[in-house]
Each structure stands twice: as C-alpha cells, then as structure tokens.
Amino acid sequence: MIIHSNYLKQCKDTQGGIKEFYLAPYQKWTRSEIITNIVELVEVPPTYFYKFECNGTYNQDSSAENGAVFFNHTVEMQVLSTEYYKPFSSLNFTKQYYRVIAKTNNDQFIIFGLYNGLEAKMTNASGGSKAEFNGFNISFSGKEKDTGYLIENLESVNIFLVDSNLFSYNLNIDL
C-alpha cells in the first residue's frame, strides 16, 4: 500500500445525479472512426442526439470473463408520463440499441455505449399517491471495453443536439 503524506481529505464539492440525457440510436462505427485520448472522447462521425431533461443516475462496474476485463454500463432515467410520452410508449423503442450521453449535475458530459451500444428496458409506473413517481423508468445497459468517456465539448467531437420536441415519436428513426 502506498501512503501519500500530502493527501488531505477534502470536503465534498460535487453533486451526484444526472440532469439531462441525450439519446441516439446505435450505429456501427469502425474502431478507427472513434478517436479517444485516455478517458476523453476526441472525435466520432457526425451524429445527432435527442435531448431529454429528466432525472437519472449511472453506474459503471468492472467485470472479468474468461480473462477479459470489461465494464458494465447502466444508465437510468425517469421520464414523467406527461413529458415525452409518445416516443417511449412504442415497442420499437426497446427493439434497438442506443448511445447515451449523460450531463451530470456537475456539468460533465459522459458517453455510454460508445462501442457496442446499450440495450433499453422500460417500465411505466403510476405510483400510489400524488407524491410518488408517475412516469417511465428507462434503463440502458451494456458491456463496453472501457468506462464511459468524458466529452469536453459536444460539437467539437461531432455530436449535435436535436430538441426532443422535434422527435419523430417513434424512436425507430433513420438518421
């Protein structure tokens, strides 16, 4: 064990959770089209993501399988029933994979499912009272070779945002 004598325990100055999500249907890119620098995404082919303002969380954990190490990406978002209802009510939504960008409450952008995409699963809950959640819980999960990559600036890596109000209400879109 290495002990650093100049390490001081610092006060927590970050806030957990996600405040915005950006979704794009997964499209296969070659490894040479994805340029990264350690933990930061540098460039991808031009891609349009749909923006959703909603609460959520993410989790990444490492696993080993037959000597290979990979990361399980799990991203969860809560969408109110009255907001963005139509696109999520379609069965087509769960029949494809996605790339997900999360904007954390610390204003960091992290992309998940970069190489393999993430599978979508959802539940629709009414809650038992007015104070309980009423809407969709959408969970994206998949295995990747690395943790999610940080994005400094979306447009500089060829990621462009489309307002979700312009959504095709089908999520089985061809971009």
Walkthrough of the structure:
By secondary structure, the protein is mainly beta. It has one domain (18-166). The chain has one helix at 85-89, and strands at 18-25, 35-37, 40-43, 47-65, 68-80, 97-104, 109-112, 118-125, 135-144, 149-151, 159-163. A hairpin with a 2-residue loop joins β4 (47-65) and β5. The longest helix is centred in the middle third of the chain and has 5 residues, at 85-89. The protein is globular. Residues 166-175 have low confidence and may be disordered.
Keywords:
175 residues; mainly beta; six-stranded antiparallel beta barrel; two-stranded antiparallel ribbon; 11 strands; 3% helix; disordered C terminus
Task: Please specify the SSE layout and strand pairing.
Elements: E1 18-25, E2 35-37, E3 40-43, E4 47-65, E5 68-80, H1 85-89, E6 97-104, E7 109-112, E8 118-125, E9 135-144, E10 149-151, E11 159-163
Parallel strand pairs: 4-11
Antiparallel strand pairs: 1-4, 1-6, 2-3, 4-5, 5-9, 6-7, 6-8, 7-10, 8-9
Percent helix among the residues?
under 10%
Average pLDDT confidence is 83
Radius of gyration: 18 Å
Adjacency order of strands in the biggest sheet? 1-4-5-9-8-6
Secondary structural class: mainly beta
Number of strands: 11
Characterize the biggest β-sheet.
6 strands, antiparallel, barrel
Count of helical stretches: 1
Order of helices and strands: EEEEEHEEEEEE
Give the DSSP E fraction (strand runs of 2 or more residues). Answer: over 45%
Q: In total, how many domains does the architecture comprise?
A: 1
Morphology call: globular
Poorly predicted runs: 166-175
Distance from first to last alpha carbon: 51 Å
